[in-house]
């Protein structure tokens, strides 16, 4: 700490430059203090002082940090020649150049701050002026405060985005009473003569498809089958428009619609008749060449898989966390899972059984653990890869979205006894055509999601398909996967895939109740074998 000594008066003229290279502030206070002393000052301290016009004394900035130019010691009158000049630099080790040879810049190795008393108290030179160095402790404290604030902001953001991981241990009185009433209503309905569950008679339920269903109150809203892109957040609306303009897969849809109305029964028949759910066979070119000999399964998937009665399609949604649906899921005849969704450590919520695992070509191509992870060794594997719109197999083979073929062969060598099928590339686009046909607006020209493909596959193999957390339940969350902590509303509403419109279709076909969706996240669809379609 040093003290200014008394002497003749002068006026401090100071100019600072911001990171943007603009002068800051435009007006600085004018103070009297002894000539022959040098000081440096921090612009933040000027706010408490009176303001007076200053001379503009330009200086060039050699780095992007905030610096201050020369200060001038003069008589205090605008336009007068300064009596003495010094150098004022705010940043450690920063050098600036003066605007003239008379006032050259200096390099100051440390930052100093001058604390002046209020201007109206500067009536006498007998009052000492104190100059203190900016301590490292102060800098450290400022950094700590900044880090704390950033940490607090991140925590608040995460808390806002965080999904509801925990079950409702206690429902509010109104909710509890309503749910009990619904359960009693369901029990009395099932106990009436001639009634039967969908498990035993799926065809009976199909006849009731599209009929009146119990509606939940305003506090128990579930997915609306007429949802539109207007329901999307602005960010997702923008993404959707970008994909519509991009049209990566050269989609040229010329079918009916959009907005064709089907009853649930008619739509089921339409799906069954127009979506060919089949796998590539060893007789399909170029898979019938010597390069592929022995790699494709010899048996049709319907020989290996099914026919099954009740099947479960388990999404990877974050809302499965704390659902305690594991036992119910394992009670099905067959269970389909997606990509790298694990069961270990999550058995209570998602069960343990895996009969079929549908994986995308990106995972097979790029996932380092695909060839080694035992997670993939259970059940039947099916891989799918997007093609250009309605490409045949040879054209798709020459230009796959991900060239997964080498890893497919490597996996088959390691696990020759495990069935591993390749979904025909035409199937996703046949399904996409129907989703576009029934949707009231243009959908993303990208293939359907793995979830929708898995649902269609199981409808071809099972009499009844229970789908878990494809339509979000009361546990709805922006957490994408139950086994990760990745947040994005696109995982529920869709961005790349036309997920919103897929959910509309599933809701339209749902055999179950809104209570099943709200409480369990479960939608129930019939298998194609059980439906009766007219000629």
From TrEMBL:
Question: Where does it localize?
Answer: Golgi apparatus, Golgi stack membrane; Secreted
Spell out where the chain crosses the membrane.
140-157
Q: What class of enzyme is it?
A: transferase
Q: For the region Disordered, what residue ranges are annotated?
A: 188-207
Record-linked CDD domains: GT29_ST6GAL1
| UniProt pathway | Protein modification; protein glycosylation
Keyword annotations of the record: Disulfide bond, Glycoprotein, Glycosyltransferase, Golgi apparatus, Membrane, Secreted, Signal-anchor, Transferase, Transmembrane, Transmembrane helix
GO MF annotations in UniProt: beta-galactoside alpha-2,6-sialyltransferase activity
The reaction(s) annotated as catalysed by this protein in its Swiss-Prot or TrEMBL entry are: a beta-D-galactoside + CMP-N-acetyl-beta-neuraminate = an N-acetyl-alpha-neuraminyl-(2->6)-beta-D-galactosyl derivative + CMP + H(+)
- Which Gene Ontology BP annotations are present? protein N-linked glycosylation via asparagine; sialylation
The record ties this protein, via Gene3D superfamilies, to:
Glycosyl transferase family 29
State a GO cellular component annotated for this protein: extracellular region
Recorded topology in the membrane: Single-pass type II membrane protein
Q: Where is the composition biased (Low complexity)?
A: 188-198
Q: What is its EC number?
A: 2.4.3.1
Q: Record's family? A: Belongs to the glycosyltransferase 29 family.
The name of this protein is Beta-galactoside alpha-2,6-sialyltransferase 1
